[in-house]
Amino acid sequence: MSTTPLLSFAHGSVVPRADVPQLETPAFRAAIVDAVGAGHRIISFFGHPAADGSIELLAILAHDADGKLSAASTLIDGKYPALTPECPQAHWFEREIAEQWAVTPEGHPWLKPIRFHPSYRPGSTPWHRAKETPAKPGVADYFRVEGEEVHEVAVGPVHAGIIEPGHFRFQCHGENVFHLEIELGYQHRGLEHHLRGGPGQKTIHYMETAAGDTTIGHATAYCHLLESQGNIRAPARAQVLRGVALELERLANHTGDLGALAGDVGFLPTASFCGRIRGDWLNLTAVLCGNRFGRGLIRPGGLGCDLEKEGLKDILNRLDAIERDMAGAVELLWSSTSIMARFEETGCVSHEDANAIGLVGPAARASGIGRDIRHDFPSGIYRYAHIPLSTWHSGDVFARALIRWVESQRSVDFVREQLSMLPEGAIATTPASLEPDAMSVSLVEGWRGEICHVALTDSQGRFEHYKIVDPSFHNWFGLALSLRNQQISDFPLCNNSFNLSYCGHDL
Amino acid sequence: MWQFVLERIRQKHRTFDYPRLTPVMPARFQGMPMVCAGAVEDDEGPLPYCPTGALSVGKDHRLRLDMGKCLFCGECERALGSNAVKFSKEHRLATKRREDLVITDVELTLANALSAESARLFGHSLKLRQVSAGGCNACEADTNVLNTLVFDLGRFGIQFVASPRHADGLLVTGPVTKNMELALRKTYDAIPFPKIVIAVGTCAISGGIYAGHNEVNCGVSDLLPVDLFIPGCPPHPWTILDGLLRMLGRVKQARDNKPEV
Predict the structure, then answer these.
(1) Residues of chain B with C-beta less than 8 angstroms from the C-beta of A161
(2) Is the CB of A410 inside 8 Å of chain B's CB atoms?
(3) Cβ(A387)–Cβ(A410) below 8 Å
(4) CATH number of the domain within which B143 lies
(5) How does DSSP classify residue B100?
(6) What letter does residue A178 receive in the DSSP assignment?
(7) Cα–Cα–Cα angle for B202, B160, A175, rounded to 5 degrees
(8) Does residue B221 belong to any structural domain of this protein?
(9) Cis bond leading into B231, ω under 30°?
(10) Per the CB < 8 Å rule, is A162 touching B209?
């Protein structure tokens, strides 16, 4: 690997933009494809306007085992040979690049818009939509299976439950699903576009609502990025409480998901217990900052509010009772054979497929991939306090449920341990101005998986470009794969076993 | 089998006797804001401490805080001091008219019952269809949580249904993205008359932090007539439940106690 033209750098470091190698497009393409073949994976890949009006493509790769990041860029104009045919991880990223910057990744096997918005620069998108023509969400050609007794089922954007909108097309043969195509974009709010020129007064609020159920995750990723760019460090007390809040967010959502999975197979005891216990976790976050989702807690330089003695005592007291209730509710699942029969061998994603498409988070770990930012690219408190990595090999709904339960137990241990030795001292340092003409990458293991924020600053130290990759961006295609050769009636079960974010994807 | 029964006993009865009892909100809860009664020196217009322009100075040189735009982030309280703006622990915030969400030094007019005819129709059975139109999943989650056994929405005859054809009204979250506009209209059209619309959360009321983006509308009112506004980012589940019950005339108009500070 010594001959790789990629620039290698550490997570949390600030890289001068001039140091990122700008390669000729064929060399760039070869370097990425080779690196992915050698065990790197794409964590961010995006375009942004270069000075001469062309588009610079920037790829950020991660090597989990080495804990190293690498990057390279290339200039393109109008079109370039797509990476996706040789590197399926690039699939969604290249569709995003095509839609945002009106360029064509030539040879892309399934080139469609992902968010249905006008492109950010003049020119024709690959599907010949002029800049002025309004995009119609969901209006596109879908993959179709032809043949006798093959039929199509369309669901959404408005669903039966209280969930976010998305459109699903199933190609079915009887009850059997041949193929599921997922069409999103309904939640597109133009978030990334409005981060340019920042950081500003609104920026932290955009981060807190990028995916509202991951408020702590995205806000922490943003604050880590600002802190590394400003060369400051949040005080120890803030680092610990950020970790506690991140694990509480994981606990609330994992509990909710385990309850939802029980509900999907009609097992009401665990469904109703977990529905309530999820709220108990959220209420612990509310002890920290007043808000069940952690709004106002994570702020650049540290925290927005401190945890006082009574609050600390309150959380530690409640922790034991919630832990017991959760264990009691979840253990019912594993001891019921009828539930195991529904969970096991449903919605399988193989280890090979998970690796090829670059799955992240509990979904990756459930397919036997030992991938966890807290472990591979730790920052903040995770540098000093290690959470054991949890994996399972079967890649089915059972595995995704089990991983949630196992890592929930580790999270409870972590919260208890950290709060019992909470360092004293300040909760925030003064934010500093950002390094000009620099690039930095921030990674956080949110409850769904890897959250990746990349910022490019201009000569004034403002955001020239800011890229957010929610874990859902990697994982939606995994859900589509899990449905292959499944009963269509198992879709809710498979869907909840991933529980991906619509707005985190659509931004 | 016995394991299930035992666990059921261990998990206890958890439904909270609302609205007879008042829930205890977290110590740091940011509920209904109160603004000082006196005149301020600032010029008329929005104040810079607020990320959404919710806090402004009126013609009369008095502070006005629009809960329909407010993120309840407390930046204003930190900047101006608790004498000027203070967030109380009062969770009851829902109103029937958009203008009632603007807090001055006059007491908030909480939502009262729908018309007698609507109360007769919906008072004991209200079926709602929920549409998320750019919501970040916080308002959605804290609406969904009303179905859990702490809140037990069903005991009030309120239920979320799968089809708009079965619904009496629409509960909308999110600023209404352009990409969800058509789906929202179609869902509204599919609901039989008479129908009600409820806007939950700051985004659904005013667009919130996303107001002014080309990709979104400024809340539901841009498209549909709204009958109930429930502010918050996101509103606490008790705030949402209180709003729904008030609208149905199941809780009295007057606040039975002063806001807890």
Answers:
(1) 130, 144, 160, 162
(2) no
(3) yes
(4) 3.40.50.12280
(5) G
(6) E
(7) 120
(8) yes
(9) no
(10) no
Alpha helices, H only, A290-444: 309-334, 337-343, 351-357, 361-366, 373-376, 397-420
Give domain status of residue B206, yes or no.
Answer: yes
How far B193 CA lies from chain A's nearest CA (Å)? 20
Mutate to test the interface with A, among B215, B236, B238, B261 (most CBs of A within 10 A): B215
- Which A residues in the span 100-119 are in contact with B, Cβ-Cβ below 8 Å? 115-117
Domains of chain A: 7-106 (3.30.460.80), 150-183 (no CATH), 192-471 (1.10.645.10)
Q: Name the minimum distance, in Å, from the CA of B204 to any CA of chain A.
A: 13
Using DSSP's 3-state secondary structure scheme, residue A168 falls into strand
Contacts of B28 in chain A (CB under 8 A): 286-290, 305, 311
Residue with tokens 């959360």: B201
Contact state of A165 with B139 under an 8 Å Cβ cutoff: no
Contact at CB, B183 and A157, closer than 8 angstroms: yes
Overall number of domains in chain B: 1
Dist. CA A259–CA A268, nearest whole Å = 9
DSSP secondary structure of A453-481: EEEEE-TTSSEEEEEEE-HHHHHHHHHHH
Chain A positions touching B11 (Cβ under 8 A) are 273, 325, 328-329
**Domain-located, residue B44:** no
Of B28, B131, B215, the CB nearest to A290: B28
Do the chains contact at B72 and A273, CB–CB below 8 Å? no
Which pLDDT does position B119 carry in this prediction?
Answer: 81
B134/A502 CB distance under 8 A: no
| Domain, as residue range, for B154 | 116-247
- Interior angle at CA A109, CA A106 and CA A110, nearest 5: 105
ipTM higher than 0.90?
yes
Partner residue facing A276 (CB), from B140, B150, B187: B150
| Long-range pairs of A137-141 with CB within 8 A, sequence gap ≥ 24 | A137/A167, A137/A183, A137/A185, A137/A186, A137/B179, A137/B180, A137/B182, A138/A167, A138/A183, A138/A185, A138/A186, A140/A112, A140/A113, A140/A183, A141/A112
Residue A157 sits at the chain B interface (C-beta within 8 Å): yes
Contact residues for A177 (Cβ-Cβ < 8 A; gap 6+): A170, A171, A483, A484, A485, A486, A487, A488, A491
What is residue A436's predicted lDDT score, i.e. its pLDDT?
Answer: 95
Q: Which residues pair with B65 in a beta bridge?
A: B55, B103
Write phi, then psi, for A77 (nearest 5 degrees): -140, 110
Q: With residue A15 as reference, give the H or E element that holds it.
A: strand A14-16
Task: Name the residue among A190, A328, A503 with its Cβ closest to that of B136.
Answer: A503
From chain B, pick out residues whose CB is under 8 angstroms from the CB of A194. 213
Query: Does a structural domain hold residue B41?
Result: no
CA distance B227 to B244: 11
pLDDT value, residue A131: 57
Distance from CA of A144 to the nearest CA of B (A): 24
pLDDT tens for residues A209-257? 999 999 999 999 999 999 999 989 999 999 999 999 999 999 999 999 9
Say whether B136 and A209 touch across the interface (CB within 8 A): yes
Report CB contact under 8 Å: A162, B215.
no
Of the ranges A116-130, A139-153, A244-258, B32-46, the best mean pLDDT one: A244-258
pTM of the predicted protein model: 0.95
Q: What is the per-residue pLDDT across A303-338, written as a single tens digit (0 to 9) for each?
A: 999 999 999 999 999 999 999 999 999 999 999 999
Question: What's the rounded mean pLDDT across residues A69-93?
Answer: 95
To which residue do tokens 């370097």 refer?
Answer: A31
Residue A136, sorted as left (phi over 0), alpha (psi -120 to 50) or beta, turns out to be beta
CA A201 to chain centre: 24
Q: Is-contact A270 A333, C-beta < 8 A?
A: yes
- ∠ Cα A156 A161 A167 (to 5°): 15
Alpha helices, DSSP H only, in A145-235?
203-209, 215-229
Average confidence score pLDDT of chain B:
90
